[in-house]
Design brief:
CATH class: Alpha Beta
Order of helices and strands: EEHHHEEEEHEE
Oligomer: single chain
Number of strands: 8
Mean pLDDT: 87
Helix content: 10-25%
Number of domains: 1
CATH topology: Multidrug-efflux Transporter 1 Regulator Bmrr, Chain A
Shape: globular
Distance between the termini: 30 Å
CATH architecture: Alpha-Beta Barrel
């Protein structure tokens, strides 16, 4: 089953900061079944990463756990990228905890899509499907997603509903 689009909108996102822990990933590895992002999420959920970020609660922009992919190499055949598990913060966030990184995002127009992901659905496949769906929705609204820049998934809750579904918001810059 594919993720179902619940809501789509174009928003003006102000300057924000992503604060969290970072790993490096690669599209080719992901396509060949070497997904290091899912185990990274599990580790961050288990090791107290998000508890440390809750200490910065007064600086939280959106109270959600995020996965932020920052594209380093625009070679579409083998894209390397940084991936951060963290939270969206206001730009005035003070220094971050040891072992964490901070990435600033300038104000930008963003396509935001809310999807329902079914129990057991692969997170990487969900991300790909959501991106394709959002490209179509954005074009219908007269905007285009900016490829090879960044993308973000946000979980208001990681606890599935009674049917095992999780709601995920995807953010992509657009023009």
């Amino acid at each position: 089953m594919k993720p179902a689009l619940i809501k789509f909108e174009i928003i003006d996102q102000p300057e924000i900061v992503i604060v969290g822990k970072l790993i490096h990933a690669n599209d080719i590895d992901m396509q060949n079944g070497k997904n290091n992002i899912t185990p990274f999420w599990k580790k961050c959920l288990k090791d107290g990463t998000f508890n440390e970020l809750k200490d910065l609660a007064e600086h939280v922009y959106v109270p959600a756990l995020v996965g932020y992919a920052d594209i380093n190499d625009c070679n579409l055949l083998q894209r390397d990228f940084d991936y951060i598990c963290g939270m969206m913060m206001n730009p005035n966030v003070p220094s971050v905890p040891k072992g964490f990184v901070k990435r600033s995002l300038t104000p930008v127009k963003v396509a935001k899509g809310r999807f329902k992901r079914s129990k057991g659905e692969d997170a990487v496949e969900c991300w790909k499907t959501a991106y394709r769906c959002m490209m179509i929705e954005a074009e219908e609204k007269g905007v285009k997603l900016i490829d090879n820049c960044w993308g973000m998934e946000a979980y208001s809750s990681t606890i599935p509903d009674n049917d095992g579904n999780i709601v995920v918001d995807y953010y992509y810059p657009c023009k």
